[in-house]
Amino acid sequence: MRCLALVCAVLAVAPAAHARERAPGAPGDKATWTAVDKLGFGTSATRESRVAFTVREPGLAEVYYPDLAHPSTRELAFMVDGRRVTEGAVTNDGLAYTHTTQTDDWRLVRTYVTDPQRATVLVKVRFESRDGQDHDLEVAFDPQLYGDGDDDVGWTRGHALLAHDAHIASALVARPALTRTSSGYKGRDEDTLLEHTYDALRPGNVVQQAHTRLTGRGDARDLVLALGFAGLGSAALRTAEATLDAGWDTTAGAYRDGWIAYRNTLLPIPAAALPLSAAYETSLLALKALEDKADPGAFITSPSHERNVVKARDLYHVATGLLAAGDKAAANRALDQLLDERMAGDGLTLVLAHQLGSGDWTRLRPLADKLARGKRSAEKIAGLICAANLARRKGASARARTYERKADRWQRTIASTPETVLDLARLGVKRADDPAMVAALQQRKRFPFRPVEYGERGEYELLAGRPATTDLNVMGSAATDANMLGERNPGATPFAWSHAQLIRLAWSVETRTPVELPAVVAARYTSAAS
Q1: How far apart (Å, rounded) are the C-alpha atoms in residues 262 and 33?
Q2: How many whole angstroms separate alpha carbon 263 and alpha carbon 255?
Q3: At residue 125, what are phi and psi to the nearest 5 degrees?
Q4: Within its chain, how far is the Cα of 311 from the centroid?
Q5: Is 253 helix (H, G, I), strand (E, B) or coil?
């Protein structure tokens, strides 16, 4: 019954579908997602446009709508003379990405932005013949709507490719308009799909293809594609067409202006970060872009189907990175998320609350009480000392002393190990030059492909009275050509914690002390012995 209702809805908005062939092979192969190592991630700086995109070497990858919990596209790729384009170099200018692929015969350049006012991804295409011959350029689109690619339908309306599931719809249109279009199923006659004019009206893993008017010569070298989203196919089509009506220059200009305006609200770049300014500036924008516009304060770990979740640990690091850069409002939104009972905050939540001067003791006290009943760790020791300070401000002196006694007992007995040494130092629980700490650090293995490791090691070096410039530069050198930092290499990219760590370490090098260090903890356990 659900499938029948969906097909009826499609036919109601797409009367042209009667004259086209019905695609065979439903439901197609099982839907999958692309790898986690993205080369780029973009969205507008506005909250009105709840669409975000990723870029991989072959082309546009997952597109998210209506929030960062739901990827709604697997990929948007191109084919030249019937052969899929599978590689290209990606550069980044304020989260606007330019993707270039070149052979001896042709050159293909794609630039990606989103419409700040609408849920549309806009792609400017420049296709140039290099051998003096005409070439065919086709588009291959793989919608996987609302996080599930196995229940979509797809059809043509006019010159537009539309897709729909029970939740949302997409529309792919172009200027100049697409010509021959066809919708089929993944793994079923994909190589010959454009030899037919199919509509895929049974739910399944839909793929869509279209010829463009570009040949690479004369006036047939430029195209603008709009991928719009909405609740219904007709609304998604209106959204995409409205973006096309606004024009590339207007939309791309507004996209860039929005990010420039946001950047101007932050602190100027610290001198320590000037040698790696591109990575630093991208980190500022990437962190903000990873905030879910539908759920302010919820920052995803990384824009991939496997990592698009909000974790307390990562959220703390994002918040402290943004706080170091001057975005206190975003850090407060993150704290509000951490104090949500669904998030199950930890000791770092209390450290962040103290850094922000939070007065929400009603929500902080249950968390502090819970930590005091748990097992010891560097994060819990620091969290309890921060909680004690907050409790005392609210007149709860007896409770503050209870937290301090528990934290003091843990601090005296906690061991310095290769696994805990960096946390103990950066949170002010143990002195960096303590012999047991030095021995533990010497036994700790370095992870050369993990940027966060260098960030934390740099903070330790500063606490030990040594410079951390080398660690900062290593972090900067780990960035991709599009200035993205991953969890490791290869690994989830962009990775929120890595970008936050770069910002924090840059400011720590500038001020010669870790900006994350909770002063109240350091004053109790490490500074007094200085």
Answers
A1: 32
A2: 13
A3: -115, 130
A4: 13
A5: helix
Read off the DSSP letter of residue 251.
H
Q: Taking the C-alpha atoms of 495, 39, 293 and 146 in order, what is their torsion angle to the nearest 10 degrees?
A: -110
d(CA 366, CA 473): 41
* 3-state SS assignment for residue 438: helix
Q: pLDDT by residue (tens digit) across 149-177?
A: 999 999 999 999 999 999 999 999 999 99
What does the block give as tokens for 208? 């869509």
Q: Classify residue 5 by burial, with Cβ atoms within 10 Å: 0-12, 13-18, 19+.
A: exposed
User: Which residue is it, tokens 């696994």?
Assistant: 419
Residue 306 pLDDT: 76
Computed on alpha carbons and rounded to an integer, the radius of gyration of the chain in Å comes to 26
8 A C-beta contact, residue 232 and residue 238: no
DSSP code of residue 15: G
**Distance separating alpha carbons of residues 400 and 398, to the nearest angstrom:** 5
How far apart, in whole angstroms, are the C-alpha atoms of residue 296 and residue 188? 41
pLDDT higher than threshold 60 for residue 16: no
Tell me the pLDDT tens digit for each residue of 402-429: 999 999 999 999 999 999 999 999 999 9
Torsion angle defined by CA atoms of residues 450, 451, 453 and 455, in that order, rounded to the nearest 10 degrees = 180
Question: Kindly report the CA angle at 148 between 193 and 32, in degrees rounded to 5?
Answer: 65
Q: Who's near 218: CB < 8 A, 6+ residues apart?
A: none
Residues forming a β-bridge with 169: 164, 230
What pairs with residue 101 in β-bridges?
Answer: 108
How many residues comprise the chain? 530
- When pLDDT is averaged across residues 313-334 and rounded to a whole number, the result is 96
